[in-house]
Amino acid sequence: MTTIVIFGATGDLTKRKLIPALFNLHKQGKLNAKIIAIGRKPLNDESIRSELKQFVKGDWNTFKNLITYHQLEFHDSEAYDALKKKVASDQNRLFYLATAPESFPIIIKQLNRTGIAVKNPKKGWHRVVFEKPFGHDLKSAKQLNKEITTIFNERQIYRIDHYLGKEFVQNILVLRFTNPIFERLWDADHIDNVQIISVESDGVLERGGYYDKSGALRDMVQNHLLQLLSLTAMEIPKSLDADDIRDQKVKALKTIKINADWKNNLVLGQYIAGGKVPDYHKEKDVSQASTTETFVAMKIMLNNKRWKGVPFYVRTGKALTHKYAEIVITFKQLPCRLFCGPTGKLTANSLVIRIQPDEGVELQFNLKEPEQDAAAVPYTMDFSHEAEFGANTPEAYERLLHDVLRGDQTLFTRWDEVEHAWKIVDKLRSVKVPLRPYKAGTHGPAAALDLLKRDSRDWSGNRALRR
Ligand code: BG6
Fold first, then answer.
1. Looking at 26, 224, 420, 443, which residue is catalytic?
2. Closest residue (by CA) to atom 5 of ligand 1?
3. How many CB atoms lie within 10 A of CB 75?
4. Helices 19-27 and 396-406: crossing angle, nearest 10°?
5. Is 385 tagged catalytic?
6. pLDDT tens by residue, 36-80
């Protein structure tokens, strides 16, 4: 039997993501474990169960008895001694640290001191999952990593980036490396530009306190967007082994060079009131004079042969028109010789990997319109994941928790990935650009459009701008 110990069990992440994911695994017979929910509040087994119940759809009764509550202040040694007794009978132990990162070191030190979690357990396994953010900048991330790696082996450490658990993020490699029609064209000779987008319509909601100290560069770019970028840009790995894949991702990140010209390649914004969303600086727990960015658009070049001269445009932000994430690959168009029509131009082929909300793949190509012979026009072939498989794709956290239980680290970030992503974000944060206001419910600052217009391109591959 396995024990899953969740630190931060009364928090939002546990309620909205972890418990529903564990419930689903239980329903499918993939969870042979008990769950110890840890929090600072004075709760008991019954009260934590009733708090968590509302976040689960389905037969709660068979699941609820797996959950017990353990009250613990992170510094309280005696509370860890008591926890030790509760886990003693189980050799396999999964610790999920869904707390603020400042608390990670004290928690793992106490777990180690008591022998609850050790480097090389004599029997079974001990694995520790660290929620993001992993540090606040390169320096703090290094410090944190030093502390956790003195206590655990890299093999025991699972740094979460929940985007890696998304079905269509996993599909990036399958699509690229199993289809010669894409793999052969995946380079600067054939690709004009790549757009990597993950945007949201909500403002910061209840998370102003955290977000105001973070901002979009740290909250989204350092992790999710650079992960999407490295999966799109990497070379083929030797095998599907976790380390072979991560080696190639790190190599791709290392090719990103940020230099003095960067002022022209980076747009930062902050939302002002629009629709139901208030001004950012009036959000709960946000400082009135806040200069935190809630929007980032940028143009990144990768310094290697495959991507020579191909811009990767990245965009993320809160309080925009829609919530969606996608990768748009626009191929190069040849000079038009036939079917050019009055414009004399043809639309370039494009491939859209839709990560959310409607997962799938779109391929755009040219055909003739009925009754028209002179000009070709673009049409889209659309693969909808839901239409094919129904709406039952596992949530990212379900997949990721199952992988931790199985000991598969492929969808977790290795230290050098985190390190290089921080190097990039620290550099980006040092670039002095104005913070541009944008109205909530729009596409963000106009300067983000200019970033592409300047290159005679637009975000038109992006469906929200087309809608
Ligand atoms: C989290 C960020 O990592 O990702 C949030 O902290 C953001 O600010 C969220 O809203 C987006 O994730 P998803 O899966 O909803 O796109």
1. 224
2. 219
3. 12
4. 70
5. no
6. 999 999 999 999 999 999 999 889 999 999 999 999 999 999 999
